[in-house]
Write a structure and sequence with these properties.
It contains 6 helices and 3 strands; from the N terminus they run H-H-E-H-H-E-E-H-H. It is mainly α. The chain has a single domain, classed as Arc Repressor Mutant, subunit A (Orthogonal Bundle). The longest helix is centred in the first third of the chain and has 27 residues. It is globular, with a radius of gyration of 17 Å. The protein starts with a helix and ends in a 15-residue tail after the last helix. 16% of the residues are buried.
Length: 152
């Protein structure tokens, strides 16, 4: 059945992506959660904790623990919102910016090898299909989508 094949391929991709992410994290000396957080903040500059949780697709308590670990490791810092003291904003430290640069380089180096024999048209088609698949698989359980940071 084609739908089952698609779901099986999606699972296979998810496992391969987790393994690749773990390997990249190890190569730069960071945990996978920190890598995800640093990449996200590198793309947006800074964000409230709740928005980070939505973008990472984790519970607020999980995001808070990840941020606490990244703070302890010196990669991010928290600040209190000037307009609303209940809001905690998170941003990269200089060490976090350095980690982001190393992640970019490591990812670019690996992608150059991995996709060396793919054409630009094949890469574009794959990206389009993966975005469509991710959108289709995103749960729509409430009438209110999670507020997330644009990750494109």
């Amino acid at each position: 059945m084609p739908v089952q094949d698609l779901l099986g391929a999606a699972g296979q991709l998810a496992r391969a992506q987790r393994e690749a992410g773990l390997d990249i994290a190890r190569s730069v000396g960071a945990c996978r959660a920190t890598v995800s957080l640093v990449r996200l903040l590198d793309g947006c500059g800074e964000a409230p904790l709740g928005q980070l949780a939505g973008s990472l697709r984790v519970d607020l308590s999980v995001a808070s623990r990840q941020v606490s670990q990244a703070v302890q490791d010196g990669h991010v810092e928290r600040s209190i919102g000037p307009d609303d003291r209940r809001i905690r904003t998170v941003r990269l430290t200089p060490a976090g910016q350095d980690l982001a640069a190393r992640l970019h380089q490591e990812s670019a180096d690996r992608a150059a090898v991995t996709f060396a024999d793919w054409t630009d048209d094949e890469l574009t088609a794959a990206a389009t299909t993966l975005r469509r698949l991710a959108d289709a698989l995103t749960p729509r359980t409430t009438g209110h989508p999670a507020r997330t940071i644009d990750e494109s």
